[in-house]
Known about the structure:
By secondary structure, the protein is an alpha+beta fold. It is 19% helix and 13% strand.
Amino acid sequence: MAADKIRVSLISPSAVDTAYWDGRPVDRSKFLKPEEIASVIFFVASQPEGVLIKDIDLTALR
């Protein structure tokens, strides 16, 4: 894929506050927000051509 200038990044978030959790007995106040994940995706996609971010592990610190 490098020859085609395709970059692949793995973004691994902990629990994210989405509809998946609706109706489940969990404390969602400690979950990551979808906007936080979107911000990281934008950051990764905004890097210059010569930069590859391979892995990101995200955990909320709430």
